[in-house]
Amino acid sequence: MQRFQAYRYELMPTGEQQRKMRRFAGSCRFVYNKALALQKARYEQGEKKLGYAGLCKLLTEWRNSSDTAWLADAPVHPLQQALKDLERAYNNFFAKRASFPRFKRKGQSDSFRYPDPKQIKLDQANSRLFLPKLGWLRYRNSREVLGAVKNITVSQSCGKWFVSIQTEREVEPPIPQGGVVGIDMGIARFATLSDGTFYAPLNSFKRHESRLRKAQQALSRKVKFSNNWKKAKARVQRIHARISHARRDFLHKISTAISKNHAVVCVEDLQIRNMSKSAAGTTEQPGRNVRAKAGLNKSILDQGWFEFCRQLDYKLAWRGGWLVVVPPQNTSRTCPCCGHVSADNRQTQDRFACVECGFEANADLVGAINILSRGMQKLRDEGRDTLDAFSGTAQAVSPDGLWIEPHWRSEAGTHRSESGAAQCRA
Ligand SMILES: [Zn+2]
């Protein structure tokens, strides 16, 4: 089985290399924007969009023309890759996966990519790598790169430079370990597993929010582009970087722990884009509970659920497992014991009490169990014979065909829940 994996390191460039990298990133941005402007102009004149090959021909002209001769100082492959990125942006737009390509701004994801492994040399023993027109660059060698190098992306973030090394290697087909589990994602608890485990949220943004606000206010008082403005801006960027690093660390730790211990993970289809839409509404139809929803939106975006699901997906695949996405309707209102669906089942935010059979439990745990049973149903519908393979593990089938915890069944009749299995690991 082929495994594609990326490794990211911080670069330790010299001053000269930093200046060059800034110039190269700027050249790539220039080429991208120039090509986008050209495509837009062609569209307005009713002409056909130029393909990648046509754009590359133009790129050669630009590099040779006296107006933009400085483009020739940058390596040609990364410039071509910028055109390729534009092509992909257009394709994503036409396939309705993304909005129309936008012009790039300075300082906004400054990066460039070397696509040809033959031009790259990676010297891991000496913690350095060779890139065309940059020479040997030192990097913080925190772990070994496995596999053959396919391409390298250089990027800048908050004043630091990074390389992302894409690799490919042959690995043994993995054998899935562990059982099936459902996960409910929420605000009060980041993730609740159907076996009762839960992870407290990090809320890295909230913790840094007041510091960030103060730094942003200080920035707004400075004269734009002055030295003090630059210092204040760097401070804002540092806080942003802190937040994103803390969040990334948090998400990776949880997704690794879950994918190590489970073969199949069921999650809700969150449609975060819909959930995080503005609640303000329009002038004709003003939104309701605007403030409360704005708070919820901030929390949703802060949690990084989408990124979490993405990580779970590939990490499970690496270990031979897979992610099952189920429709989210009524997972928090359905009773896992009798199947009764009612909004009254959920009287408070964190408590579930069935009005039909009296079953009581933590609301997030109920959601996770419902997600699990839906995931199992979906697997059965798709004809994936996982029931036999996994029935001996963490979860068991109740007499009415719902997948619930064994310790719940042992206490059947009383329907008491939340035994000692529930614990906070975060
Ligand atoms: Zn019930």
Short précis:
With 426 residues, the chain is an alpha+beta fold.
Q: How many domains in all?
A: 2
Bound molecule kinds, no repeats: zinc ion
Oligomer: single chain
The main sheet orders its strands as 2-6-7-1-5-4-3
Helical fraction equals 40-55%
Mean pLDDT score, rounded?
82
- State the end-to-end CA separation: 33 Å
Question: Quick one: overall form?
Answer: globular
Based on DSSP secondary structure assignment, what is the total number of beta strands?
A: 16
Order of helices and strands: EHHHEEEEEEEEEHHEHHHEEEHHEEH
- Which value, in Å, is the CA radius of gyration? 26 Å
Largest sheet: 7 strands, antiparallel
Q: Flag low-confidence runs.
A: 387-426
Strand content: 15-25%
| Helix-strand category | alpha+beta
Protein architecture, described:
- By secondary structure, this protein is an alpha+beta fold.
- It has two domains: 169 residues, no CATH class; 211 residues, no CATH class.
- The strands form four sheets. Strands 2-6-7-1-5-4-3 form a seven-stranded antiparallel β-sheet. A five-stranded mixed β-sheet has the order 10-9-8-11-12.
- Helix 1 packs across helix 3, helix 2 packs antiparallel against helix 3 and helix 5 packs across helix 8.
- The longest helix has 35 residues.
- The C terminus is likely disordered.
- Zinc ion binds next to loops.
- The site of zinc ion has 8 residues, from loops.
